[in-house]
Every structure is written in structure tokens, then in C-alpha cells.
Amino acid sequence: MNYPIVNNTADLAAFATMARDTRRILALYGQGGVGKTTVAETVIAPALNINPDRVYVVNHSGSAPSEVKGTGVPDMVTREMWFGKPLNVPLYERIGDAPALLVLDEYPEWDGAVQSLCRSLFQPTGSRPKIGSHELSANTVIMVTGNRRIDGSRSSVPSAPFVERCLSIIWQPTLDQWLDWAAANGLGASPIYTFLRFNGLDQRGKEGDFFCPPVQQPWNGDAHPCPRQWEAACQLDDSSPLFSLALWGLVGEAASKAAYAFTETVAKLLPTLALLRQGGATMPTDPSTQFALMHCALRQAKRESSADVEAAVVGGSLDWLVNMMLTVRGEIREWAYRTAVSPACGIPLQMHHQRHLLQQGI
Questions:
Q1: pLDDT tens digit sequence for 218-247
Q2: How far apart (Å, rounded) are the C-alpha atoms in residues 362 and 87?
Q3: pTM for this structure?
Q4: Is 221 exposed, middle or buried (0-12, 13-18, 19+ CB in 10 A)?
């Protein structure tokens, strides 16, 4: 499949709008774990002014046709058959003609008999799209997601009549965009986040070495790094003796070894952190070391001030943390401040008397 690559949410939202305005299906392809289904709810629906409760995600991989069109119920009087209403689709009888987004997840993997029941979604015979004999809202936007064979999937190649009804693109998010998302969702305090921030790209600056590299060909089933797996890795307990093995099971051998080596480096910086707190050392100039030291500092500050963190900030117990933050590079200070005040860390540095210095450039 040779489609244009989209790697930022602004362009993705624009493509979704164009698909709706031209009455095309938005076909979103890409590796597993890059967030194709997630962006349907977080990016595409808002761009189309569709309420979150009008986003319907269905996956009928392995389903029988009866699960899609509804169970048949015989009418003994008329000798006819009517079908029960299928679940989790924007039926006209349920929502009228309200705007809705119907996501057919992993559609290329659906059985052919199931796909045939959705043909009138793509070329309605009446005023509204249908699944089987059931009418949907006239303002339903159709989106399909799928993996390509190069992504290690068993997906079949879409038929030409289907592709000719689509606006097809490949979703391939960038590392920087994922890091922004991870920080906003409270994952910025993880040493794995720190690893990806400085080591997610290879030495030539080509993105994807550890973050989301192409799937190995031929596919051999090894654990593979992708955004979904890195999200899970950021939630691991890095103090566990099984941490390195869990990393391996999530993101594969090469990525896990690199990430674990980095976390071990972070741990070895704790003596330097102690000297910085005592005023017996100066902040190193290397950005990676600064980032790692600030990660250690945030973890220590959170643990030491857990009894009453507001009192610690206002009373000066965390002045050492603020002083460290003021000696690092601007982008690292910005990350450290945002991480500190995030719900996951919960250190209210916006209450500190030097907050105006911490917030410069933010």
C-alpha cells in the first residue's frame, strides 16, 4: 500500500475534514500500536465536532455475520424474518441524524461475509448508510483502520472498489509528538521517558531506531517497540528486579537493553545529585546528564515531601530542587517544571516565591 504519510495531528484533522466533505471513507493504516484507534477519539472526532459519546468503535475480526446484522427473529404470523438491532453502532432509531463517527477497526482482517454487510455504508442505496438492513444516522462519518502486510499483519489487500471510496493515509506519529502526549498524561517522571527523550533517535538523527522502527521482515514474532508498548514501559516499576525482563517482553531485546542501560546510568548519578544539593558540585553541562539529574531530583523531592508537599514548597524545604532547575537548560527546566506540577508528581512549584523564573518561556 502506497499512501501519503501523516505524522502530526493538525494534518490528520484536516484529512478527516476533507474525507467528510467529499463523502469519502477515511482509511487510516499503519503499524500496530501507533494509536490509530486512539486518534479517532482524541483528534478526528473533535475536528468534526462530534461528541465523544457519538464515537462508535467496532471490531468484527473473527465475528459471524449474525453479530453484525443482528440476530434473526422469525415472525410466525407474516412468515418473515426481522433482525435485532446490532450493538455499538449509530442507528437512526437510537440517535436520529445526529453527527457520529463509526470506526471499523482492523477492517481488512474482517471476514468477507461480514465486510459484505457493510457495503451499503460506503455506497448508500437510500438517504442513510446501512449495516445490513439497519439504517444509520445520515451524518455518520465512516473511518476504517488497518495494518499493512509490512507491519507483520495477516491483513488482506483491500479491494479496488473499496479503495476507490476512500481517502487513504498512513498514520506515523513522531517521537516528539508522542513525548508531548506522554508528558501531558503524567508519564514524564519515568526514566523510560527520559531515555526516549534523549535516545529515541539514532546517531544520524533518523527517527525510529528505538521508538517505532519498521517491523522486521520477514516477521518473526519478536517483541517490537511502538508507542503503545513504550506507554506501558513508562508505567513499569523501575526498582523491580524484573524490570529489565519486563522491558524486553514489551519492546524487544535491543530497545530494552539500551533503555535499561540508560536507567542504570541515571541511578549512578545519585551521588552527584547529593553533592549538588549540598553545594559541593556544579551542574554538568551535558543535556542528557542534566535531564537524568532532574529526573532523580524530582523523584527524591516527591518522596521526601509526601507528608505535606505544599508546606515543603512554601516553607523552603524544596529550595534545593528549584535552585537545581534554575541551573539547567531552558527546555529541561520547562520539562522539569511541567512534570513537577503534573497530577502524577504533584509538587506545586507554582506556589514557590521564584515561580516567575521557573515559568519563563513556558
A1: 888 899 999 999 999 999 998 899 999 999
A2: 46
A3: 0.72
A4: exposed
